[in-house]
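Why Kynureninase? Reviewers of the renewal asked for a concrete example.
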Amino acid sequence: MPLTLADCLARDADASASASLQGVRDRFAGGDPDTLYFDANSIGPMPADVPARMQDLLQAGWAGARRRGWNTLDWLEQPRTLGAAIAPVIGARAEDVRVADSTSINQYKLLRYALAAQAPRRVIVLQRDVFPSNRYVAEGIAHAGLADLRFIDGVQDLPRALAHGDVAVVALSHVDYRSSERLDMAAINPQVRVAGALSLWDLSHSAGAVAIDLRGTEADLAVGCGYKYLCGGPGAPAFVYLHPRHADAAWPAMCGWMGHASTFDFEPDYRPGRGADRFLVGTPPVLAQAAFAAAAAIWREVDPRALDARHRSLTDTLIQLLDEQCEPLGVQLASPRQHERRGGHVAVRFEHAAPLAQALVDHGVVVSARKPDALRFAAHPLTATHEQLWTAVARLRELLQRQAWRDPRYQQASV
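Here is what the prediction returned.
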């Protein structure tokens, strides 16, 4: 039987399916009342108390305490406390996660760290069609003469890439940013480890949406951004993960006073901090951390298993609605149907995806498109509802039926 609006409302009302998440949705700002937001893979919803936290920081901290804030407030500890808050969401220990800098900078740090720890091995293996910034970072390292790159078209090519015995690190995206295909971390990590290499995972499109178990799958290194599903705010600091077995394997590529073993001793020579602390570099961005702290307060209370179950229910519902209402109109599923193989968003293929995405945004459904033909719906598991999915797909169907993407207003490129 086709899904009805009543079915979607019933799934929202099923308390047994989301008991541990009751009340969490109310802790986020609602946004524009006539807009449906499915852009959590670009920027997550804002915790409702962010403005109050920011105002308190500005008045009591910056205006009032000034330099005393470094001593009386938690500014310097935020990279650790924020890391500890999100650690359960990615299956890690609190002491192995730090929040700092951006995903690209952290990717650079960890690639260089892996190369130093694995010398004389100098090959970086990465996906040919990975998110461009990940590739650019690796190319920059290779251009400086510090590594050689070896590309794979898919994980099926990994055994051949590892066979030479010269690979230092395999850098993979947990989830493809276009199709949302999720790689099997538990199956890949042993392949990499047996070959004597390290695994480095980019969790940007999975952290805060689906189940991740870095420690259980023996992942070596990981990075991810804080502003997507983790709801840290626009340009929020990213996170870095280091398995404790590599805690003292090498010096960091970027040595700064915050990563020193004894920050305020002001020693003339650098001594790396313990474990993940060595990936801290400069003074932390206190204003950005204050916004992220609002999200961290919520993540401390979220059961990762309940989060994953909620995401499964939402995305399975979305796929069924798209199949039933939009497939006859030229929309084809691009994401895996199995939840375990799918990341945070659901992607469909449509020849005119970019202008169609703009038409949807213009009609109150915020989605995104990626070349050449991917239309992406990213429902945040803490805030999205099944009813919203029904409404969004109904609007999509109506726009497809009248070929709204042909409107000249939607032909210009958009983010």
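The longest helix spans residues 304-325. This is the kind of structural detail the renewal will allow us to pursue systematically.
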